[in-house]
Structure formats: structure tokens, C-alpha cells
Amino acid sequence: QAKRQGRNTWRRYAGGDGAEPGENVSLRRDLQEAISNDQLSLHYQPVVDATSGELRSIEALVRWHHPERGTLSPGVFIPLAEQTGQIIEIGQWILRRACSDMMALQGQGVQPIPVAVNISPLQFARPSFVANLAQVLAETGLPAHLLELELTEGVLMADADGAIASLKALRELGVHAAIDDFGTGFSSLSYLRYLPINKVKLDRSFISDMMDSRGSAAIVQGVITMAHHLSLEVVAEGIETEAQWQALRGRDCDLLQGYLFAHPMPLAQLVEKAGLSSAAS
Ligand code: C2E
Ligand code: MG
Ligand code: MG
Ligand code: MG
């Protein structure tokens, strides 16, 4: 299982833009200063209703504005931060910032909108995670039902019972949970019925393949049907074409996310583009 985690980390690392392996040491050192020097920021990407295309929620995606290397993608630095343990501090910053961003929006008179935050398996496995989260909600004032956590199948690997207990505690708080990148892990589908979650997010790889591959299309349909039987909503990630949108709508997918609708962007830009501020009056 450790091997699987390692391979996944490597794949994400190698697939990202930016650093070569030899640069890791300096990046790690720089990451130490990223938080204190205000180099991290959150971009937000819309999730839309599959039928109407209307905005339903947003996902927070972290960016690192490196003083020399420019903007680095999380695919590069999150795995590094996981290796060094810095992910705990960074993850805490992300959670707090996402919650306070949403409260700032509400302060501007924007209609409350649910926000999804990605959580590293290491962060989720901490015994203090749920208590910490409750404290962030209390301090920022964000209602729990407006927060959704995105977790990968990796959270179940080290300690499935512990993860399920934490998910139950989250549900009691009123926080929602989604399984991200669904279908990419090797876990059995049957574990889904034990998980107190609300959503699955179908990985982008199935979406990009489904138009050409009957196998991928069958998996997409199978996941949607199964998830609905378990009363879970399905989000399809990485929608880039009209044809994909129509295909997923035809397959009864609930929610969509992808460049076809919007790229991740700074919050102020999203408010403007989505015409959210006009909802105030
Ligand atoms: P993810 O959570 O599955 O996020 C979706 C990724 O797909 C994002 O990349 C997003 O920009 C990208 N994407 C969205 N629509 C499309 C599309 O139509 N086509 C293509 N090709 N890509 C699309 P990003 O922001 O680079 O994030 C990559 C991964 O890094 C995330 O995958 C997530 O696993 C991780 N990550 C991002 N932000 C955070 C964070 O705040 N905390 C943690 N722990 N991980 C994060
Ligand atoms: Mg995600
Ligand atoms: Mg995903
Ligand atoms: Mg993905």
C-alpha cells in the first residue's frame, strides 16, 4: 500500500509542470517561506449543474507564486509538502483561507455558495483534524453545510476504520465529503457503501477517454448508476468539450467541472465573471 501511495505521488509529480528532481531540495526550503511570505493563494473553479449549466459550488485550488519560478502548480509542490510534513501547516492555511474567503464574499452581499477544499490524506489522518476543522468553522463563522471536503481513496489506505470514524464526525458537524479522482485508485467499489459521504468525483481520465473508448464510457455509466443507487451525487471532472457535456448529461451525471465552463481563477474574477455580485441587490 505504501508502494501505491509512492507511485501515485511520483506520477503526480512527474506529470506536473515545473521542477526537475534535482530542484526538490531548494523547493522544499522555499516552501518553508511560502506561507510566511504570503506566496500561496487560492484559485476557485466553478462546479455547474449538468442540465442547466448553472453554478452550484466552487472548488478551492492552491497556487504558489514562487518569487523566481513563477506560479507553481499543486501537482508539483503538494507531493513535496507531503514528503516533508509541511502539508499540515499548508493544509491548515488553505482550509482557513477558503472559509474566510467565503465569509468575505457573504460580507459583500453575495449569495452563500458551497466551497470544496482538497484535503491531503496526511492531514485527514491527524487525530486532531476534525476538532481543528470545527475550530476553523467557529472562528470564521462559515456554516458547516457550506463546506465540502475532497478526499482521495488514499485516506482509506492507512487506516480505513479511523477514516470512517472521522467521516462520521464530519457528518455530525454538517460538513459534506466527496471522494475525489474516483476510479483511479485500486480500492474495491464495495467500500463506498460504508462511507458516510455525499459525492463522488469521477476522475478526468475517464472523461477524456469516454468518447473514444467504450470501456471508459461503461465505467462512467457504471459509476453514475451505482452512486445514484447509494444516494450519492456524481461530479464529472475535466469537461473540455460540448460533446462531453452532452454525453454526461445523457448519462444522468449530476454536476460538471472543467475548462469548458471555467478555469480556476482568483475569487474576485470569479465573482465578476459569474455575475455573483449582482445577486446582492
Ligand atoms: P483535483 O482536486 O482533482 O483538481 C482538479 C485539477 O484539474 C485542478 O488542477 C484543475 O485546475 C484541473 N482541471 C479542472 N478542469 C480541467 C479541465 O477541463 N481540463 C484539465 N486538463 N484540467 C482541469 P490543479 O489546480 O493543478 O490541481 C491538481 C491537484 O492538486 C488537485 O487535483 C489536487 O489533488 C491537488 N490540490 C490542488 N489544490 C489543493 C489543495 O488546496 N490542497 C491539497 N491537499 N491538494 C490540492
Ligand atoms: Mg479536488
Ligand atoms: Mg479530482
Ligand atoms: Mg483529478
UniProtKB/TrEMBL annotation:
Full-sequence portion shown in this chain: 452 to 732 of 732
Transmembrane annotation, as ranges: none
Organism: Alkalispirillum mobile
Entry superkingdom: Bacteria
EAL domain: residues covered: 24-278
Name the record gives this protein: cyclic-guanylate-specific phosphodiesterase
